[in-house]
Write a structure and sequence with these properties.
Chain lengths: 336, 291
């Protein structure tokens, strides 16, 4: 029980968070973090554990999102049914895709998923009679308050992390890691690699699809550029996994928090701090600086990718011992 | 029939440029063993270099090749030296770190350009941009045919370089077997730096040649990166001859696709071909010839 005490404490904090923080802005940010925890956990299962790098998380995210949107837009059913159905449909997409594309290895598989992502984005753009193309689909939001969305997102995030934890501790988890470490050796030991890679992909796609369906319900509007975005969804999912730590259960949670925080600090100019500073001092220099910094949030994202890969290849969680040594140099001095 | 021939000519002319893009990519792939997902973004940089020269100094885009190719050569070398080579020594669970790194580099390049030039569409309208020659009832775009000729010359020069010079031989050696090449006294890291520069310079040439007939905005890199990897996979990874065939095939496929299926399918066709090739002809055209 002791090893879970930290997680349970965190969960308790997360449960009371919307009651303690009434500000809708911070609640919105936390919902985004929770969405990314689900997507990142999905990515981590197939890529971090099974070693099949997914460059096209947005394909599953978008399919989940469009399932929910089309249910309400075309059939007049509540978009909330998109959550279970979105998971089922992404599952149905992942199964044949995995069956066909898992004969590709390493970077080839990564490129195939990238192509899948782009193909779906084009389909959603071109097939206007179904998806309304670039116009996008508007879905009425059910709740005015953000609190219900927060708890649903929390539920999905916790379920994703728990799924990863349970799977990784089971026999399947060991199969996945053995496939990542050496596929041929795993095959020769009698592991049906195609089957277990497919299992990993299907589980992952369900998590990502669920997050997509929730995104539609929460944001109330989707278009192909947003939900099938290569940079904003697929690469961001990889970044969440890598910042947090590839192949660690808690990695995506840490990564999601860091990524949303960094992006938002840039986008809002230090949570509005710089804006206040510029109006307080009236200095034109600070004002232009604020403008540039908020424009640079995608740039910051790219720089973050480069920085993390160069200096933290195993993520904050994976490289925690090294990071701790570097950050807490004062502790060494204290003992001396 | 006329439409068919017209499409054929347009496809082949475009294919020449695509071959140039693919050649750079395949050189990098062969030597480094990674897919450079910042390739289109490097081309975008070259296009902006050309645009600045054209717009502010009135340099003809074709003369701008003299500036854009060396500057991208240097940029490519810097990227390899300071961002990709250090990664070789980093221990990580996922071997695809370098591919991801190129994605990050591509994003940074795009955003830096957006910072400087904003997202507006730009174009370099030259006097000959829309000039057309008629040969037997078929219209041939003047700038596109110049681009085709230059691309062919550059491709031939590249082949001469790879086959005849010492440096070219070293590059081929590293791409065949890096360890054996190092044992023979080749500095593989230096070769990687030079190859990255060379690949960037080639794609810079493609960008510069494309500018008079195309428009320009910071996100233009993405579609061309996708084309580049489609071409490389089509031709067979690391195969220079394959890249030429891959480029021409993609050019033809896009031309016929947009004529007979619909303009909006132009980009999707390449991706579908890509998936089909990966599945049914892994190894690309290289596999067919056994060269």
């Amino acid at each position: 029980m002791k090893q879970y005490s930290g997680a349970i404490l965190l969960l308790a904090v997360m449960l009371v968070f919307p009651l303690a923080v009434q500000d809708a802005y911070y609640q919105h940010l936390m919902i985004l973090v929770l969405l990314w925890v689900a997507i990142g956990s999905g990515w981590n299962l197939i890529s971090g554990y099974a070693g099949q790098v997914l460059f096209g998380a947005a394909a599953f995210f978008g399919v989940g999102a469009y399932t929910a949107a089309l249910l309400s837009h075309k059939l007049g059913i509540s978009a909330w049914w998109g959550l279970p159905l979105g998971a089922v449909i992404t599952f149905a997409l992942a199964l044949p895709f995995g069956w066909v594309c898992f004969r590709l290895r390493g970077p080839y598989f990564a490129l195939a998923t990238l192509a899948l992502n782009e193909i779906f984005r084009h389909i959603a753009t071109i097939w206007e009679s179904l998806t309304e193309g670039m116009v996008g689909i508007l879905v009425m939001q059910t709740f005015v308050s953000k609190v219900p969305y927060y708890y649903i997102a929390l539920g999905i995030a916790v379920a994703s992390v728990l799924t990863v934890e349970i799977v990784v501790r089971s026999r399947w988890g060991y199969y996945f890691v053995s496939i990542r470490e050496d596929q041929d050796a795993a095959e020769s030991l009698g592991i049906d690699t195609l089957r277990y890679k497919s299992v990993a992909l299907c589980l992952s796609s369900c998590m990502i699809g669920l997050a997509g369906a929730l995104y539609t319900n929460y944001m109330g509007f989707i278009d192909p550029r947003v939900v099938f975005s290569l940079h904003d969804v697929s690469i961001a999912a990889i970044l969440v996994g890598i910042i947090g730590g590839v192949g660690t259960v808690s990695g995506p949670a840490v990564g999601a928090f860091i990524m949303v925080a960094v992006m938002e600090i840039f986008r809002s100019g230090g949570f509005g701090f710089l804006g206040k500073l510029s109006s307080a001092t009236g200095s034109p220099f600070v004002a232009t600086l604020t403008k540039y910094i908020s424009e640079a949030h995608v740039l910051s994202f790219g720089l973050l990718v480069i920085f993390v890969i160069l200096y933290l290849p195993n993520g904050v969680v994976g490289d925690w011992p090294i990071l701790k040594k570097k950050l807490l140099f004062w502790r060494r001095q204290a003992t001396v | 029939m006329e439409v068919f021939l017209q499409t054929l000519v347009a496809g082949i002319l475009k294919g020449g440029l695509y071959a140039l893009i693919g050649l750079g990519m395949t050189l990098i792939m062969g030597v480094m063993g990674i897919i450079n997902l910042a390739h289109g973004q490097l081309m975008m940089i070259a296009m902006y270099v050309t645009y600045v020269l054209f717009h502010y100094m009135g340099v003809d885009p074709y003369y701008a090749l003299i500036v854009s190719m060396p500057s991208l050569f240097v940029l490519g070398m810097l990227i390899q030296r300071f961002l990709l080579n250090p990664l070789m020594k980093v221990e990580a669970i996922l071997p695809e770190n370098q591919v991801l790194m190129t994605v990050g580099i591509g994003m940074v390049l795009t955003e830096v350009i957006r910072f400087i030039f904003s997202s507006n569409y730009l174009s370099a309208q030259t006097s000959y941009s829309s000039e057309v020659r008629f040969v037997g009832g078929i219209s041939i775009s003047y700038p596109l045919s110049i681009a085709f000729v230059v691309a062919t010359v550059l491709t031939l020069a590249l082949f001469w370089f790879l086959i005849k010079t010492d440096l070219g031989r070293s590059i081929r050696a590293v791409s065949q077997d890096p360890e054996a090449a190092e044992l023979m006294g080749i500095n593989a890291e230096r070769i990687k730096i030079i190859t990255m520069g060379l690949g960037s310079a080639l794609v810079a040439a493609a960008g510069t040649l494309l500018l008079p007939i195309y428009y320009l905005y910071p996100d233009i890199g993405g579609p061309f990166t996708r084309r580049a990897f489609v071409i490389t996979i089509l031709g067979g990874l690391g195969s220079t001859v394959g890249a030429i065939f891959g480029g021409v095939t993609l050019g033809l496929a896009e031309a016929f696709g947009s004529t007979y299926i619909g303009m909006e399918f132009e980009e999707m066709i390449g991706l579908v071909i890509f998936l089909l090739v990966l599945l049914f002809l892994p190894g690309g055209f290289k596999r067919l010839t056994k060269v």
